[in-house]
């Protein structure tokens, strides 16, 4: 079912329009089977997202390079946000389908990304209030919304340029809060 959904989202010009009926037909199951398995379309999207983000999560949580303790906190933050950018671009069809729906900020995946970002910000800042790190994490993740990334690419920014500017922005934000 997940493979059928992934294929439909990947080939759709408007992933937000892929229906549970279409997914059920492509998977050769009844629509009720999808709803029993995933609860909703967002549940299916979140399950598919979880399957795809597992490698990134494991790398971050296990302390694989560049997330080792010896790497300066600011550089771990830059690397983490770069990994999120890469993940979103590699899975843009799925991300576009999920980020256009309500409830994204309450999803387990966004909460994980936000929690990791907030913790890395707190480490990188050295001193900060919880509200500073909370807000800053949301602001930095907002810049990684798939529509914005795709607009930057369509406007002529290359992926290396986006990566460079993203890293510079993170450093500027953290340096500004440190002062």
Structure write-up:
The protein has 179 residues and is an all-alpha fold. It has one domain. Helix content is 75%, strand content 0%. It has ten helices and no strands. The protein has helices at residues 2-11, 20-27, 31-38, 41-62, 73-90, 92-99, 108-125, 130-142, 146-154, 159-178. Helix 2 (20-27) packs across helix 3 (31-38) and helix 3 (31-38) packs across helix 4 (41-62). The longest helix is centred in the N-terminal third of the chain and has 22 residues, at 41-62. The chain starts with a helix and ends with a helix.
Write the layout of secondary structure elements.
Elements: H1 2-11, H2 20-27, H3 31-38, H4 41-62, H5 73-90, H6 92-99, H7 108-125, H8 130-142, H9 146-154, H10 159-178
Specify the helix fraction band.
Answer: over 70%
SS field, number of helical segments? 10
Integer-rounded radius of gyration: 18 Å
The number of domains is 1
The coarse silhouette is: elongated
Concise overview:
It comes from Acidisoma silvae. The chain is an all-alpha fold.
Question: Which key terms come to mind for this protein?
Answer:
179 residues, mainly alpha, elongated, TetR/AcrR family transcriptional regulator, Homeodomain-like_sf, transcription cis-regulatory region binding, DNA-binding transcription factor activity, HTH-type_TetR-like_transc_reg
């Amino acid at each position: 079912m997940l493979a059928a959904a992934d294929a439909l989202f990947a080939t759709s010009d408007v992933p937000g329009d892929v229906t549970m009926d279409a997914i059920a037909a492509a998977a050769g199951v009844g629509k009720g089977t999808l709803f029993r398995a995933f609860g909703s379309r967002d549940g299916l999207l979140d399950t598919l997202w979880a399957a795809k983000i597992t490698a990134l999560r494991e790398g971050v949580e296990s302390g694989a390079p560049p997330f080792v303790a010896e790497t300066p906190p600011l550089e771990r933050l830059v690397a983490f946000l770069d990994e999120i950018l890469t993940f979103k671009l590699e899975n843009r069809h799925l991300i576009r389908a999920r980020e256009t729906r309500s409830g994204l900020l309450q999803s387990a995946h966004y909460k994980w990304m936000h929690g990791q970002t907030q913790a890395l910000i707190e480490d990188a800042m050295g001193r900060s209030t919880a509200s500073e790190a909370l807000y800053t994490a949301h602001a930095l993740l907002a810049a990684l919304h798939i529509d914005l990334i795709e607009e930057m690419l369509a406007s002529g920014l290359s992926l290396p340029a986006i990566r460079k500017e993203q890293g510079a922005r993170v450093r500027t934000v953290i340096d500004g809060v440190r002062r």
